[in-house]
Write a structure and sequence with these properties.
heterodimer, A: alpha/beta, Ubiquitin-like (UB roll), N-terminal domain of TfIIb, Dimethylsulfoxide Reductase, domain 2, seven-stranded mixed beta sheet, six-stranded parallel beta sheet, B: Arc Repressor Mutant, subunit A, four-stranded mixed beta sheet, 7 helices, elongated, binds iron/sulfur cluster, binds FE2/S2 (inorganic) cluster
Chain lengths: ~900, ~180
Amino acid sequence: MAKIVIDGVTYEVNGDNNLLQECLSKGLDLPYFCWHPCMGSVGACRQCAVKQYRDADDQKGTLVMACMTKANDGSIISIEDEEAKKFRANVIESLMISHPHDCPVCEEGGECHLQDMTLMSGHNYRRYDRKKVTHRNQYLGPFVGHEMNRCITCYRCVRFYDDYAGGTDLAAQASHHHTYFGRQSDGFLESEFSGNLVEMCPTGVFTDATFSAHYSRKWDLQTAPSVCVGCAVGCNTTPGERYGELRRIVNRYHGDVNGYFLCDRGRFGYGFVNSAERLAESQQGKGTGRRTVSEDEAVLELNRILDGGQVIGIGSPRASVEANLALLQRVGGDNFYAGVSDAEFAQLQILKQLSGESALHAPSVREIEECDAVLVLGEDVTNTAPRIALALRQSARNRADELAAAAGIPSWQDAAVRELAQRELSPVYLLSGYATRLDDIARATVVDSAPGLTQLAQALARTLDSAAPTPAATLQEEQKQLLGSIADDLKGARRPLIVCGTGSGSEALLKAAANVARALATARGGDQAVDFCCVVPEVNSVGLVLMAGETQSLGLALKKMQAGDVQAAVVLENDLFGRAPQSQVEAALAGVGQLVAIDQLPTRTTELADLVIAGTSFAEQQGTYINYEGRAQTSMQVFMNNQAARPAWKWLRKESETTLAGLLQTAETTLEGLAGITAILPVSAAAVAGMKYPRQSHRYSGRTAIQAAANVHEGKQPEDRDSIMAFSMEGMSSQRDTAVLPNTWAPRWNSNQSVSKFLDEVGGHLRQGNPGRLLFTRNGSSAGYFEPESAAVTTGDFTLIPAYQLYGSDELSARAEVVNERLTGAYVALAPHDAQQLGVAANDLVTVSADQEALDYPVCIRRSVKPGTIVAFTPAGQFPVAGAGDQVSLSKAQGSGQARFGNLIVSDLQQEGI
Amino acid sequence: MNSNLIASSATSDKIQARELTASEIEEIEHEKTLYPDKQAVGLEALKIVQKHQGWVSDESLLAISRYLDIPVSELEGVATFFNLVFRRPVGKHVMLFCDSVSCWIMGCENIRAHISQKLGIDYGETTADGEFTLLPVPCLGDCDRAPVMMVDENQHRNLTAEKVDAIIQQYRNNEPGEQGS
Ligand code: SF4
Ligand code: SF4
Ligand code: FES
Ligand code: FES
């Protein structure tokens, strides 16, 4: 701790930090542009100038940049000093010389850091009366808009996009007053994290193009604290609604999970909520006999079926805990099945088994960033859990911080640290099925199919601990050497990390990865848990597996249905055709008496259902989701569905008095895995005098007139009987409880940068505590190493490796209209040699035949695919022709494919002919 | 590793990288031996290509990007940072005309007006016959002999309208410019 004096007041601060950080952490207002807590200081904008005095006698002082000056013990500074104030006003005046002052038509207006800083700096009169520099804007794809004239050259965009997120297609161009931030030529931004530019840029240069298409000011949006349903990371978000339509999603700070950043799937993939395809009303009957039914009729019919006996429920990894619970309680645990593929179910069971083991720890995103040696085993995190990929980039940078620390350079001195470290990175080893987007930070990569990677992992475990099982195969010298360095790096690291997941599709690889982590824990003395990050596919995959019984697989459910043992099946938010082979699903549906499907959008399953119940999207309901690390988080309802869709848990509850809290309370006592879950319910339910937390801002406009086109009388606000929030402007201040805090907003801070006002320190944790709760309790010791199993032998010439994509691997976001522009469609990637042998070129069709099935896929050629393997991408909602590690045969088929390979962001695409 | 990240959309469909010539490659390879990594060779490669081609076209930019494994946007950043890396075609002779303070005091504006009138071009323009391009530069380091301009590699000092006429004629006649006053 250091003591510093700011404008005559003494503060206790962290002396290792810079003055700007500390001023902001103390809640003081000091303008800045280029600094960011995650990216450090470069002193580019000169906006954060303060006066620093040598000692108490120094009356004159010197102007220093607060972000570039260490908060040394005994420092005396002034923010209020007249000269410093004038300097800041002059700086912003010159930064804004060519700024167009187009706030009224700018999407940033009203939540603009530049507006806030202009006011704060006291620049209010424009003296420059010459011609402004103007720029040509670029087309950057469907997500991000570009209006370069608004730029104040703070360089934050490129520092985030390139330096922090590893992008390569956005750069600063030209110089002095022509400086331009864009791509070399028009084209979509390639980074999976491009949307963060919208929040990183302090002005309206980069804006959310999906929001512009149906724009509203920040204060006119109805918002609530929500959780992204795009993957299993569970980033915290703030969706905003107006006129019954979801208008945008922005980041909501969580100190352990997403921090300041979201991925583009999460930010831009919300359009499915507004889709014209949405199931607005419930329907009964099949084919031409299908008719719309009223809510009451739907409830009656559903209850008749549910009470009729012999009913099974198929739960969903994309539905909330509450929705699954309501179904489970209705049909009984023995009749509740996990609606995931059997291969995935087996993997999730292993994860469940590992979740109690004390030698392992599931790291949060923030903890991942702290790890300084990483081994990734078979998981393409960029496309399955993107926010984790962004964190891994920061893990690799720990080496730079170490070097800086040794040289006495503070880690926030960004330019100096980068200059010192050059290309030195902490060790990251990527063992995957195909080249990934993290290859540029890897010390070494291995590309192989799951069986190959499993052998390596088994051997690595054995290298780390001689008590680990003997690996099945013997390795080549080169491989042994690589494993030797991996083992050394993992053992020697301050905090090593093993990343794996269900993405490899291989149970054996998951087990081998667990063995590596266990062996590592032993090799490191055994008294500390090893970070073991196991990625799962969907927002509530973990929740589902904690609820469903160990043997309650979908395969079993389908068999029972086929055998005619089931009167009715209720399928919750799930398309069975994406979870099991078509033939199996069809046979099962043929055997079942009645099929009920509850969903938001039509699927092949809803098409075939006898009763289709209209469910709500995440934004129209409250729900809890459990992320990859076992963190239960509640997502609050943002707005009311104005048609006849209702939350699944409401349709399914037996008693109309059952509440969300009630469902969780019952679960806590009956389901072991969910112990502790009620702790996440917002405590402030003690709503004072019936008052609730408002979802609308004080400035929300037009409430009395919003429905004037239909009715000149002010309509009643919809009532929220389910939660402690209200669809209203009135109520208690949500600022005291992060569980109900939708937006950060503070006097003089209207943009998202106001988040500093809500944190214990900048970049730290929410002052009232980060919402959510970790459910895994680890007190069990390991059951011992998994024994290597010999894989079942199948025939064929190629080993299949499943591939994933940011756009397309997630069922819901893929149905957003804007995301459609970035989809590729299904394909298989071949090694150049194999393509030649088969005589196929890009976008030709090949027939992939496995045991039972044969399907045609368009081909692309990727240089780094291992000969003898095929990398197959199957969009969500379709079932792959074969499983990971299965052998398949290929033959050239007639015709050519429709895959849009221009949308493929991979490093090794052979472009000829595409 | 970097170009590994350049995906298909990094370059617009319209632009195709051209083949670098053997002598360009030879010179770039030589520069590579002088720097710790190939990223650092970007600027030198741009200069080499400009020396051979007169300017750096999109096709050349892309060719260098591929050859050196530098993202094309980054290379564009370097190319556009430096005023004298030409990203548009220039004339056979490039006139760098000093418009900085000493030359301004010595009346360079009149000389510039004379050049513009004689050649029919303003700053940033090239004569219709492709002979001359006129560009402003800040201070050529010859302030004591202002006004000054540099044509190709040659400095011309103490400029007057008559002198400028003679210089232009010389270049038109393909006579190398004379040094000094
Ligand atoms: S575009 Fe935005 S973030 Fe980038 S330099 Fe300009 S103002 Fe800063
Ligand atoms: S990483 Fe996952 S949870 Fe986070 S924003 Fe992206 S899709 Fe959503
Ligand atoms: S914030 Fe300190 S110089 Fe930009
Ligand atoms: S000002 Fe023209 S040469 Fe220096």
